[in-house]
Amino acid sequence: MTIETTTAGVLALILIMTLVTLATRFGGVFIMSYVRISPRVESFINTMASSVLIAIIVPMAFAGDAGALAALSVTAVAMLILKKPLPAIAAGILSAALVRYMV
Amino acid sequence: MINTAHSYQFQPGKVRSELIRMFPISLFVVAFGAAFGLAAVQKGLGPLESLLMSTLVFAGASQFAAIDMWGAEVSVIPVMVVVFAINSRHLLMGASLYPMLKDVSPAKRYGLMLLLTDANWAVSAQEYQSGRRNLEVILGGGLVLWLAWIVGTWLGVYFGGLLQDPKSLGMDMVLGCFLLAMALGGKKSRVCWLPGYLLLPPHWQHGSGCRLTRMWLQGHLPAV
Asked: Which residues, in sequence order, are bridge partners of residue A3?
């Protein structure tokens, strides 16, 4: 099934994308409202939160170029030393720009 | 249960301070939004259509992916599948905030989810693990990120030439670096899931407070 990208078609596509995204935004919360939060569920949630974070970051490092890898490693080191997010992020972005400029 | 229902009290001052806290990140989101706006008009989307997409969908990676599939005709099912796949992380993110979200009314609960992004979720989820309840960052942070995304798209649509290649400035790495900084910040247990942690000698792992990871490594973690 295809939609022609006329004005009406584009609006329909945007609406479809919005609804699909809304389903993901609401879905997890909706399902959880039927789950009783026991200590075990609680610890699952806590572990899952860390895993999701790592699952977003790791592909960026592996699928990315040398700049991406530089950005993430510099951010990690700077964060562990400085313990301040903003300087660490700035250093990471700067090193990505630098590596890409040089390579 | 009845008495404690919807007990979460939003502090207007905290919403404002979280909005300000996310402001520096939102500047980078403007740049990223500009890249999207430029890509969208180059793929044939109208200025208003691009803005409407950013306003309603508000999920950057999936918008870039959808734009990649754009043409004179667009296949609906593949776009839906790709958008769902990229945004499916929201399912887990929303679920992980539920212990806090259950304490607000359903209208507010789902209203907050409209503003859910990786960045404000990462702050809220990490603070929850340190024992702090922070839904204000979802609201305040989400609002400023949403506005930044719209303003960025608008800039890209009309002044796209200003920032031809945000990648050369490292702009594509802002979110990655931010999430990594959040993952590493504060409480010790946040480093537990880094690959490097697993390479540490056992007694170092033991000292680092990563109970769940340690149990998992030793095979003691019950299947959840």
From this structure: B74
